[in-house]
Structures are given as C-alpha cells and as structure tokens.
Amino acid sequence: MDTEGTVAQSIRMINAGCELVRITAPSKKDAENLEPIKKALAEKGYTTPLVADIHFTPNAAEIAAKIVEKVRVNPGNYADKKKFEHIEYNDETYQAELDRIRERFTPLVEICKEHGTAM
Predict the structure, then answer these.
(1) Which candidate, 28, 49, 52, 93, has a CA 20 to 30 Å from the CA of 73?
(2) What domain range includes position 74?
C-alpha cells in the first residue's frame, strides 16, 4: 500500500466532504500500514474516521481493529480463503460450519470491544 498516496487521497476525500475514509487492507502488511496513515492524517489535523475493508484475512482484521475506528468484514468469507464452491449441507455439517466461523470470528469481536472499534 502506498502510504503517502493513501494519505493524499484521504485528504482530498475529506476536503471534498467525506465523513469517513474506507481503505482496503487485504493483507497483514496493509493492515499494519494503517497506523502510519492514521498518524500522518492526525499530524495534518485530520480526525475523520478510518474504516479498514478486509476480506479473507482474519489476522489483518485483528490488526486493523486496534488502529482504525471501524473494520468492515463479511463473516461469510472471513473464515475462508477465496473458496467459492457450492456445498450441500445437512444439519450436522451446517452446524459445524457455523461453529467454525464463530470460532474464527469471535476473537475479532473481542478485539473490537476492547478497542471501541465499530464493525
């Protein structure tokens, strides 16, 4: 992610009237880069909320949740890598899938609660 470019683009958006800035952070490295972006904006006097848009990478979401005001995820693809296939579930396999997603998603919810991060 281009830190300086993202800061500059965020400033243009804010100056144009945006009330929040959504930044795609698809990897852990990108999520970590949200911190210097937020810091640079704050140093320039911008306090507009930042939203990290994350899919498929739970670790990136957990990092971002400690930095930005909001994390946007899709629970349906949060627990899996890009795996788009049609699966027929029975009651048992459906419940197992729900349990697996809950197990992977709950840590993010707890981090968001701890840091006051919206989802």
Answers:
(1) 93
(2) 3-115
User: Which of 2, 4, 34 lies closest to 21 in space, CA to CA?
Assistant: 34
Q: In what order do the strands lie in the sheet with 70-72?
A: 21-24, 50-53, 70-72
d(CA 71, CA 108): 9
CATH number at residue 17: 3.20.20.20
Per-residue pLDDT for 25 more than 60? yes
Q: What would the pLDDT profile of 66-119 be if each residue is shown by its tens digit? A: 999 999 998 767 766 656 667 788 999 889 888 888 888 899 999 999 999 999
The tokens describing 101, both together, are 């997603």
pTM: 0.86
- For the chain, the domain total comes to 1
